[in-house]
Write a structure and sequence with these properties.
The protein is built from 12 helices and 27 strands. It has 499 residues and is an alpha+beta fold. The strands form 5 sheets. Strands 10-11-12-15-14-13 form a 6-stranded antiparallel beta barrel. Helix 1 runs antiparallel to helix 2.
């Protein structure tokens, strides 16, 4: 469970306001209608009755699973601080005869054995054939994933795809006729609506807590794309990836994090809405990566902008206090093409009101590059509406796919112990064959030893695979490869992954 500390909002004061308003409305109804006393009495009794959530719990519990994460022990090379006097006595010539740069009180590379790591989280079965949604941070870096159903049956799971930007992941178990949850449209949930949080917090499996929707479209600055549902249902460590369900037992969100001063529940929990989840799941199934649409602006809520200017002694009127103040327009973006400028305020997307940044993020997160949207905005306080075509991070409308090592057209292996000793290096990948593809285009020769790609150390072929995947979906799909020739001479190459 992700935690953000040092943030507390008094829940009791919110509850007091809600009940005060309900009492005020009842009093007004009793005053203005002859039959009002009876109506008001019924309304008051109905409002006071606790919502029966047993049906929702019974319906949703079988769909929520326990996920055990295992990261096996590994040998890693780390840099450690050296003692200059110790180095001097062990090598008084300071590497003069080719034994490395020691005796200078700097750093040296040392191999360490990392401990085996285990953790637990939750997940939600979304299809009877075994697809499960959870958080990216629940499965990221796992060597083994074990899924336990509510009936204690265990399955090994594999990762279909993951997206750090939304903190969502899709995993799969080999099962049939599994209890898939019914998915509701999170756009339809209302503030004040009763919900259940279901998961495996603090080692307590199949736990249900109740609360209400406290707010929608929250942004916390924890992930790249956010439009959280906020709830006061208790969420703790282990709830990550679990279900937030409505009174009908239908999924409305994936629990992701909590705000707390202590690291345990003392405030609010936050869930990723199903409207965003559905899009991410579809993309991971179809493309292997999320097709992220971009308007091409950076900005903030208008109220935040006005408050910032007030602190500088400025008084500015943007014609509204609701919407997104455009602080910057990205060059060659959809926003620039539409004529949006710095200082404009976006108020609607496809007719939906945009009151804060979470609203905008939530709407655009459901779109793909190439989709057209109608943007309504204020320019010099005058309302304008234009249709724009959304683009991907690379500035076009093409489908972005995770590139595989095959795109490089080469074969690789970890360097041998003899190569390490000869070249005085502790890791690297040797290019053992170049048959075509991007490596040949860049001029990378057979025998070249790759040590770093985009400033990340390349110790295993898996490291290279991850670097290629990450670069292929980034704004700049390029690999900066650094390493050395078999002679020990240093070199680098630039490999373009895009067409």
């Amino acid at each position: 469970m992700k935690k953000i500390v040092n943030f507390v909002t008094p829940a009791l004061s919110v509850a007091a306001i809600v009940f005060s308003v309900a009492a005020f409305n009842t009093t007004c109804a009793a005053t203005h209608s002859p039959s009002a006393p009876e109506t008001a009495s019924v309304a008051a009794i109905t409002a006071a009755q606790p919502v029966d959530l047993t049906y929702a719990a019974d319906k949703a519990l079988p769909s929520v699973v326990h996920i055990k994460y295992v990261q096996n022990s590994k040998v890693q090379t780390v840099e450690v601080q050296t003692d200059p006097f110790e180095d001097f006595f062990s090598d008084p010539f300071g590497g003069f005869f080719g034994r490395g740069q020691r005796g200078q009180g700097g750093t040296r590379k040392q191999q360490v054995q990392t401990p085996k790591r285990t953790a637990t989280g939750s997940g939600v079965i979304i299809s009877s054939d075994g697809y499960i949604v959870t958080n990216n941070h629940v499965v990221d870096g796992a060597d083994e994933l074990t899924v336990t159903l509510s009936d204690n049956k265990e399955y090994s799971a594999r990762i279909i795809g993951a997206d750090k930007t939304t903190d969502l992941a899709l995993i799969k178990i080999d099962g049939k006729s599994l209890p898939a949850i019914k998915i509701a449209n999170s756009d339809d949930v209302k503030v004040g609506e009763w919900v259940l949080a279901i998961g495996n917090p603090l080692g307590l499996n199949n736990t249900v807590t109740a609360g209400i929707i406290s707010a929608k479209a929250r942004t916390l600055g924890a992930n790249g794309v956010e439009s959280f549902i906020q709830t006061d249902a208790a969420i703790n460590a282990g709830n990550s990836g679990g279900a937030l369900v409505n009174a009908n037992g239908e999924l409305v969100g994936i629990n992701a994090m909590l705000y707390s001063q202590t690291g345990s529940y003392s405030g609010y929990g936050f869930a990723i809405p199903t409207a965003m989840m559905n899009k991410v799941v579809d993309d991971l199934k179809q493309y292997g990566t999320v097709q992220r649409a971009m308007i091409g602006i950076s900005g903030r809520d208008v109220k935040t902008q006005v408050d910032l200017e007030k602190e500088d002694g400025k008084e500015t009127d943007y014609g509204t206090m609701e919407g997104i103040y455009v602080a910057e327009v990205v060059e060659n973006s959809a926003a620039q093409e539409a004529g949006i400028e710095k200082g404009d305020v976006i108020t609607e997307v496809d007719g939906q009101k945009v009151q804060k940044f979470g609203d905008l993020s939530g709407i655009i997160a459901q779109k793909r590059p190439g989709d057209k949207v109608a943007l309504t905005y204020l320019h010099n306080k005058k309302k304008q509406t234009k249709t724009v075509t959304l683009r991907n991070e690379q500035g076009n409308t093409k489908v972005v796919k995770n590139a595989d090592l095959d795109v490089l057209g080469a074969d690789f292996r970890e360097i041998t112990k003899a190569q390490k000793e000869q070249l005085e290096i502790s890791y690297g990948l040797e290019v053992i064959k170049v048959s075509g593809g991007k490596m040949k285009e860049a001029g990378v020769p057979k025998g070249f030893i790759i040590q770093r790609v985009n400033d990340e150390a390349m110790k295993t072929v898996e490291d290279l695979q991850n670097a290629v995947k990450e670069a292929s979906t980034s704004k700049e799909p390029v690999l900066i490869i650094r390493g050395m020739y078999p002679t020990g001479k240093r070199g680098y190459f630039v490999v373009q992954l895009s067409e």
